[in-house]
Amino acid sequence: MEDFEQLLDSYEQQTQAVEGQVLKGTVLKLAGEEVFVDIGRKSEGVVALREFMDLAGQVQVRPGDVIDVVVEREEGERGLRLSHEKAVRLRLWDDLEKAHREGTIIQGHITERIKGGVACDIGVKAFLPGSQLDLRPPRNLDAFLGQEVRVRIIKLNKKRGNVVVSRKVVLEDEQAQRRAKTLETLHEGDVIAGVVKNVTEYGVFVDVGGLDGLLHVSDLSWGRVAHPNEIVQPGDEITVKVLKFDRAKMRVSLGFKQLVPDPWSDAAERYPIGARVRGKVVSITDYGCFVELEQGIEGLIHVSEMSWSKRTKHPSKLVKAGDELEVVVLDVNPAERRMSLSLRQAQPNPWDTLHERYAPGAVVEGRVRNLTDFGAFVEIEDGIDGLVHISDFSWTKRIKHPSEVVKKGDKVRAKILGIDAENRRLSLGIRQLEPDAWESFFEHRQLGDILPGRVVRLASFGAFVELEGGIEALCHNSEINPDVTGGAPLEIGREYEFKIIKLNPADKKIGLSLRAPLHGAERETIEAYRHSPSGARTTIEEMVTLKRAGNGDANP
């Protein structure tokens, strides 16, 4: 009997409920607002029914359920007052302490944003710092609200009820495991899946199994890429090809465009020279514009091939980015990935039909577009320029530069002298609008004629004299009589009477003489001859000779 009483005392000690200790109990019944629970004592324990209700007010316990409880106090005949909620919290803290000790990964739910990070529900409210939320500190913490996350406890104080968790350490461990596996299996040439982690102006960083590989912007597309974000965004899952892999440095170079054929490989066959094709202007430079015919195939329209007619200092005056154009292929060089295109050759050439609109001898009107040392270019219609050579401005004037006669922008009339459509040349003349003053002079003047002339300039060998019609002649120093000039040199601007002593129509040269004054009688004879209606023509030299012979003058 004594042994039995000792065994009973021992059993009672083992089953003695201690306040704050978590015990296992079996639900006996639900009565009113209370739940009766058997915890192995002589008397039953009681838990408030509200502790088992969910948010919708539904009771979440039934007779026979095994639950955790904590003894709060004894209530005399009513037995023990128990708490299920406190038991759950205490059990939870025990589990959290164990997870902290062992580094166990637990599930959490991000509920709200707080100072320095977010609140994470792991059964209790835990603090998840922003720096521990991801492998790289996120810019937008709000994007994580409501997410389920896997975390590890990095700091715990049960007494104060503080818990700090980290998602970053979980991701780092997982990344290290994936990296180790990737290092064992990755090879150059492999086609693998990856996730875009970051996008920069020079390329994209892609996570390929724990390793960050660089997908350079030049390897994103065969076509033009202004910025990588035109093609991919962070978080995108993409397939890439391993171009280079340095296992020791853990560096990976990736390619995206290499997954499709190079469009230049058969560009010469698909875009033969002379073919008319359509494309979109993608960029404009000082020397032309680039036209995309398809992704990866671009051609250059040089500024000289943009228009038959319009002239501009910059191609942007003719086209703009995004314009759809029809062009002609001039040249294809797949090795250098270059193509030359022409916009103007897809349009009619005005020079091809120029002869239908104009003919040599026709008088046209145009505007002076440009001046050079050798002449002036006159635009007679859009894109058609003709050259007035410096020698075709005047029959008589000596012009050193076209600016002496015309200036840029002047409207002028000219005669077409010649058309060379093949070489795109049009010759114009302004002096040809008037009769040839030289022809008229040589037709009406002959040796011995005496006529007035104005000295226009002096040279070391003589004086240049302007005659009728603007014709210039030369009076050599040997033909200037000092008696006539009074011993002084000829005066520029002064008019004298000269005798024609040389006529050379082929070279358009005229020689004059100012050797001696003519006698008064000779002048009278000459004047009479000038006004004589006689059809008989006698040279002045003959008349002077006859006159002198009549006066008994021995000198002819």
**Share of β-strand residues:** 35-45%
Sketch the major β-sheet. 5 strands, mixed, barrel
Number of domains: 6
Radius of gyration: 56 Å
Shape: rod-shaped
| CATH domain class name of the largest domain | Mainly Beta
Helix content: 10-25%
- Which spans of ≥5 residues are poorly predicted at pLDDT below 50? 4-17, 517-521, 534-540, 546-556
CATH H-tier superfamily of the largest domain: Nucleic acid-binding proteins
Distance between the termini: 193 Å
- Find the structural class using helix and strand composition: alpha+beta
Describe the strand arrangement of the main beta sheet, using strand numbers: 1-2-3-5-4
CATH architectural arrangement of the largest domain = Beta Barrel
Question: What's the CATH topology name of the largest domain?
Answer: OB fold (Dihydrolipoamide Acetyltransferase, E2P)
Number of helical segments? 9
Number of strands: 30
- Mean pLDDT across all amino acids: 83
